[in-house]
Amino acid sequence: MTREQYVKQLDLLKESVLSLGEMVELIFRDSMASVMDLDVKLAEKTLALEPEVDKLEEGIEVSVFDLLALQQPMASDLRFVVSTLKITADLRRIVGLSINIAKIPGRIEGGYVKPLIDTKKMADAAAFMLENSLKAFETQDVELARTAARRDEEVDKLFYAVWVELIEMMAKDTTIISRATNLLFLIRYLERIADHCCNICESVVYLSTAERVKLN
Protein backbone atom coordinates (compact mmCIF):
# COMPACT_ATOMS: atom_id res chain seq x y z
CA MET A 1 0.00 0.00 0.00
CA THR A 2 1.41 3.42 -0.93
CA ARG A 3 1.64 6.31 1.51
CA GLU A 4 -1.19 8.02 -0.37
CA GLN A 5 -3.43 4.97 0.05
CA TYR A 6 -2.51 4.74 3.71
CA VAL A 7 -3.49 8.38 4.36
CA LYS A 8 -6.71 7.85 2.44
CA GLN A 9 -7.53 4.82 4.57
CA LEU A 10 -7.01 6.86 7.74
CA ASP A 11 -9.31 9.57 6.35
CA LEU A 12 -11.96 6.99 5.50
CA LEU A 13 -11.75 5.58 9.01
CA LYS A 14 -12.36 9.04 10.46
CA GLU A 15 -15.32 9.59 8.12
CA SER A 16 -16.78 6.24 9.13
CA VAL A 17 -16.61 7.13 12.84
CA LEU A 18 -18.27 10.48 12.14
CA SER A 19 -21.01 8.73 10.12
CA LEU A 20 -21.58 6.41 13.06
CA GLY A 21 -21.70 9.46 15.31
CA GLU A 22 -24.41 11.05 13.17
CA MET A 23 -26.45 7.87 13.38
CA VAL A 24 -25.97 7.73 17.16
CA GLU A 25 -27.12 11.35 17.53
CA LEU A 26 -30.24 10.56 15.49
CA ILE A 27 -31.08 7.49 17.55
CA PHE A 28 -30.53 9.31 20.84
CA ARG A 29 -32.58 12.33 19.75
CA ASP A 30 -35.50 10.21 18.49
CA SER A 31 -35.43 7.90 21.49
CA MET A 32 -35.76 10.92 23.79
CA ALA A 33 -38.53 12.42 21.63
CA SER A 34 -40.41 9.11 21.76
CA VAL A 35 -40.11 8.84 25.53
CA MET A 36 -41.00 12.48 26.19
CA ASP A 37 -44.12 12.28 24.01
CA LEU A 38 -44.85 8.58 24.66
CA ASP A 39 -44.73 8.17 20.89
CA VAL A 40 -44.69 4.40 20.34
CA LYS A 41 -44.44 4.65 16.54
CA LEU A 42 -41.33 6.84 16.74
CA ALA A 43 -39.91 4.44 19.32
CA GLU A 44 -40.45 1.49 16.93
CA LYS A 45 -38.83 3.46 14.10
CA THR A 46 -35.85 4.16 16.36
CA LEU A 47 -35.49 0.53 17.41
CA ALA A 48 -35.37 -0.50 13.73
CA LEU A 49 -32.18 1.53 13.21
CA GLU A 50 -29.99 -0.64 15.45
CA PRO A 51 -28.93 -3.09 12.66
CA GLU A 52 -27.55 -0.15 10.62
CA VAL A 53 -25.39 0.79 13.59
CA ASP A 54 -24.09 -2.76 13.81
CA LYS A 55 -23.02 -2.64 10.13
CA LEU A 56 -21.20 0.66 10.61
CA GLU A 57 -19.49 -0.63 13.74
CA GLU A 58 -18.38 -3.81 11.98
CA GLY A 59 -16.95 -1.82 9.06
CA ILE A 60 -14.95 0.38 11.43
CA GLU A 61 -13.55 -2.62 13.28
CA VAL A 62 -12.46 -4.25 10.02
CA SER A 63 -10.73 -1.01 8.92
CA VAL A 64 -8.93 -0.71 12.26
CA PHE A 65 -7.70 -4.29 12.23
CA ASP A 66 -6.54 -3.96 8.61
CA LEU A 67 -4.58 -0.84 9.46
CA LEU A 68 -3.00 -2.41 12.51
CA ALA A 69 -2.11 -5.64 10.74
CA LEU A 70 -0.94 -4.28 7.40
CA GLN A 71 0.42 -0.82 8.19
CA GLN A 72 1.59 -1.06 11.79
CA PRO A 73 0.93 2.67 12.39
CA MET A 74 3.22 4.49 14.82
CA ALA A 75 3.02 7.49 17.18
CA SER A 76 0.07 9.82 16.43
CA ASP A 77 -1.33 7.51 13.75
CA LEU A 78 -1.38 4.62 16.19
CA ARG A 79 -3.11 6.79 18.82
CA PHE A 80 -5.66 7.80 16.22
CA VAL A 81 -6.42 4.23 15.16
CA VAL A 82 -6.67 2.94 18.72
CA SER A 83 -8.80 5.92 19.75
CA THR A 84 -11.27 5.36 16.91
CA LEU A 85 -11.81 1.81 18.13
CA LYS A 86 -12.45 3.03 21.68
CA ILE A 87 -14.74 5.86 20.53
CA THR A 88 -16.68 3.40 18.39
CA ALA A 89 -17.22 1.18 21.43
CA ASP A 90 -18.52 4.15 23.45
CA LEU A 91 -20.83 5.19 20.60
CA ARG A 92 -22.18 1.64 20.36
CA ARG A 93 -22.94 1.65 24.10
CA ILE A 94 -24.76 4.97 23.74
CA VAL A 95 -26.89 3.31 21.06
CA GLY A 96 -27.63 0.41 23.40
CA LEU A 97 -28.76 2.81 26.13
CA SER A 98 -30.82 4.84 23.64
CA ILE A 99 -32.49 1.64 22.47
CA ASN A 100 -33.38 0.93 26.11
CA ILE A 101 -34.90 4.41 26.31
CA ALA A 102 -36.94 3.78 23.14
CA LYS A 103 -38.44 0.67 24.75
CA ILE A 104 -39.94 2.69 27.62
CA PRO A 105 -42.94 4.22 25.72
CA GLY A 106 -44.28 0.71 25.05
CA ARG A 107 -44.22 -0.08 28.78
CA ILE A 108 -45.72 3.10 30.22
CA GLU A 109 -49.38 3.01 31.24
CA GLY A 110 -51.06 6.03 32.76
CA GLY A 111 -48.31 8.56 32.04
CA TYR A 112 -45.35 9.57 34.17
CA VAL A 113 -45.47 10.06 37.93
CA LYS A 114 -43.92 13.51 37.64
CA PRO A 115 -43.19 16.08 34.94
CA LEU A 116 -39.98 15.33 33.02
CA ILE A 117 -38.52 18.80 33.51
CA ASP A 118 -35.23 17.72 35.10
CA THR A 119 -35.07 14.66 32.86
CA LYS A 120 -35.29 16.95 29.83
CA LYS A 121 -32.42 19.02 31.26
CA MET A 122 -30.36 15.83 31.63
CA ALA A 123 -31.14 14.84 28.04
CA ASP A 124 -30.24 18.31 26.72
CA ALA A 125 -26.91 18.25 28.56
CA ALA A 126 -26.15 14.73 27.29
CA ALA A 127 -27.05 15.79 23.73
CA PHE A 128 -24.67 18.75 24.04
CA MET A 129 -21.93 16.43 25.27
CA LEU A 130 -22.50 13.95 22.44
CA GLU A 131 -22.60 16.61 19.71
CA ASN A 132 -19.51 18.44 20.94
CA SER A 133 -17.47 15.36 21.76
CA LEU A 134 -17.92 14.34 18.10
CA LYS A 135 -17.00 17.83 16.91
CA ALA A 136 -13.93 17.67 19.13
CA PHE A 137 -12.99 14.34 17.56
CA GLU A 138 -13.46 15.73 14.04
CA THR A 139 -11.26 18.76 14.71
CA GLN A 140 -9.09 17.25 17.47
CA ASP A 141 -10.08 20.22 19.62
CA VAL A 142 -8.91 19.39 23.14
CA GLU A 143 -10.54 22.43 24.76
CA LEU A 144 -13.90 21.60 23.19
CA ALA A 145 -13.57 18.06 24.50
CA ARG A 146 -12.93 19.37 28.01
CA THR A 147 -15.85 21.82 27.72
CA ALA A 148 -18.20 19.03 26.65
CA ALA A 149 -17.06 16.75 29.47
CA ARG A 150 -17.72 19.41 32.12
CA ARG A 151 -21.49 19.07 31.53
CA ASP A 152 -21.26 15.60 33.12
CA GLU A 153 -21.31 17.21 36.57
CA GLU A 154 -24.66 18.83 35.75
CA VAL A 155 -26.07 15.49 34.60
CA ASP A 156 -24.86 13.76 37.76
CA LYS A 157 -26.43 16.38 40.05
CA LEU A 158 -29.77 16.13 38.26
CA PHE A 159 -29.59 12.35 38.33
CA TYR A 160 -29.15 12.18 42.10
CA ALA A 161 -31.81 14.85 42.72
CA VAL A 162 -34.43 13.04 40.62
CA TRP A 163 -33.36 9.68 42.03
CA VAL A 164 -33.93 10.82 45.62
CA GLU A 165 -37.25 12.46 44.71
CA LEU A 166 -38.55 9.29 43.06
CA ILE A 167 -37.48 7.07 45.94
CA GLU A 168 -39.31 9.35 48.38
CA MET A 169 -42.41 9.36 46.16
CA MET A 170 -42.46 5.56 46.01
CA ALA A 171 -42.05 5.31 49.79
CA LYS A 172 -45.14 7.48 50.26
CA ASP A 173 -47.25 5.83 47.54
CA THR A 174 -46.44 2.24 46.61
CA THR A 175 -49.05 2.20 43.82
CA ILE A 176 -46.71 4.27 41.63
CA ILE A 177 -43.70 1.97 41.93
CA SER A 178 -44.08 0.43 38.46
CA ARG A 179 -44.37 3.77 36.66
CA ALA A 180 -41.68 5.39 38.80
CA THR A 181 -39.29 2.53 38.09
CA ASN A 182 -39.42 3.30 34.37
CA LEU A 183 -38.39 6.85 35.17
CA LEU A 184 -35.56 5.60 37.39
CA PHE A 185 -34.28 3.52 34.48
CA LEU A 186 -34.58 6.50 32.13
CA ILE A 187 -32.44 8.81 34.26
CA ARG A 188 -29.90 6.01 34.80
CA TYR A 189 -29.61 5.54 31.02
CA LEU A 190 -29.06 9.28 30.57
CA GLU A 191 -26.42 9.36 33.29
CA ARG A 192 -24.59 6.48 31.61
CA ILE A 193 -24.82 8.14 28.17
CA ALA A 194 -23.15 11.24 29.63
CA ASP A 195 -20.39 9.02 31.05
CA HIS A 196 -19.72 7.51 27.61
CA CYS A 197 -19.55 11.02 26.14
CA CYS A 198 -16.88 11.79 28.75
CA ASN A 199 -15.00 8.70 27.60
CA ILE A 200 -15.09 9.99 24.02
CA CYS A 201 -13.72 13.34 25.23
CA GLU A 202 -10.91 11.53 27.05
CA SER A 203 -10.07 9.66 23.83
CA VAL A 204 -9.92 12.97 21.96
CA VAL A 205 -7.48 14.37 24.52
CA TYR A 206 -5.37 11.21 24.25
CA LEU A 207 -5.21 11.10 20.47
CA SER A 208 -4.35 14.82 20.33
CA THR A 209 -1.84 15.05 23.18
CA ALA A 210 -0.87 11.48 24.14
CA GLU A 211 -2.05 12.43 27.64
CA ARG A 212 -4.38 10.06 29.45
CA VAL A 213 -6.90 12.01 31.54
CA LYS A 214 -10.06 11.35 33.55
CA LEU A 215 -12.76 13.90 32.75
CA ASN A 216 -15.67 12.55 34.80
Automatic annotation (TrEMBL):
Superkingdom of the source species: Archaea
Q: Which InterPro entries match?
A: PhoU, PhoU-like_sf, PhoU_dom
- Show the GO cellular component annotation of the record: cytoplasm
Localization per Swiss-Prot or TrEMBL: Cytoplasm
Which keywords are on file for this protein? Cytoplasm, Phosphate transport, Transport
SUPFAM superfamilies in the record: PhoU-like
| GO BP annotations listed | intracellular phosphate ion homeostasis; negative regulation of phosphate metabolic process; phosphate ion transport
Where does the PhoU domain start and stop, copy by copy?
18-103, 120-204
**Pfam annotation, one family:** PhoU
Q: Which PANTHER family match?
A: PHOSPHATE-SPECIFIC TRANSPORT SYSTEM ACCESSORY PROTEIN PHOU (PTHR42930:SF3)
Q: Which family does it belong to?
A: Belongs to the PhoU family.
What role is this protein assigned?
Answer: Plays a role in the regulation of phosphate uptake.
**Assembly state and interactors?**
Homodimer.
What is the protein's name according to its record? Phosphate-specific transport system accessory protein PhoU
- Per the UniProt record, the source organism is Methanosarcina barkeri str. Wiesmoor
